[in-house]
Structure formats: C-alpha cells, structure tokens
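Problem: given the chain below (78 residues), write out its structure.
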Amino acid sequence: KASARLLASAATYAPPQMTTMNCRHCKAIDSVTPSGLNQTGIIVFIVLLLACFPLCWIPFVSDGMKKMLCTECGREIL
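Solution.
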C-alpha cells in the first residue's frame, strides 16, 4: 500500500513552475525560473545550520528564498 502511494506521488511530480515577470535589464516580458538561493536564502541556511541543523533544508524549498532568472538574458530579476 505504501509503495502504491509512493508511485502515485512520483507520477504527479511537476517541475518548478515558470512565472511571467518583466526583466528590467532586457525589457522582455518572458518566463523566469527559480534557480538556487538568493542572498537571504544563503544567510538563513547558514543560521539554521549553526542553530538548528535539522531545519537547515527549509531555504531550499521556500520559493521566497530562490533567485529568479530571466530566460532571455540570464540575469537575476530582483
């Protein structure tokens, strides 16, 4: 029963969602994708790593702590 549940959850996996934003560098209205951690995410990771090791994974799953990159020019959208 547990393996069927695991297979069902694997079948419904979706890659990170792309959202539409305006790039202030190339002025493109294009899709952007989350990539890595931004500066806040890195700071939170280090603090949690030192203060409470079991929770240090949180910045990697929080969308607010990820960099958003333009698919046209590759620069970070702030």
